[in-house]
Amino acid sequence: MQYARCDRMAARSSGKTVLIADDDLWLREMLGLLLAVDGLDSIEAGNGAETVRVAQEQQPDVILLDIGLPGKSGLGVLQDLQNDASTRAIPVLLVSGQIDLFETGHAHDAEGTFHKPIDFEAFVKKVHEITRDH
To answer: Which of 1, 32, 39, 89 would you call most buried, defined as having the most Cβ atoms within 10 angstroms of its Cβ?
Structure first.
């Protein structure tokens, strides 16, 4: 499966890329459009294996990782990313609509956590904060 790239606003792009890893195509597309309006590019992945592959190939600046991915869970993907030298330094933001992520994210060294529905303003603020440091 080929990954999608949402850089519809390339003229305003900051050059920063967010990998949106979620099995909900609508959510990926909406977040991609909203990120583009805010000057951020996005790439997408719909399952665990694809997330790891896209992260390795594209080296995004930030990964928004859903805990409930099909195949390998988001926490399994996070472990794979942290164990791979090529993806270890990429900040990961965990997202879920089902579990309390604060302790889970802290225990797994995630850069932050968000609950669905995502507070988009807080999410973009966190992405800009993270990418400013990298």
So the answer is: 32
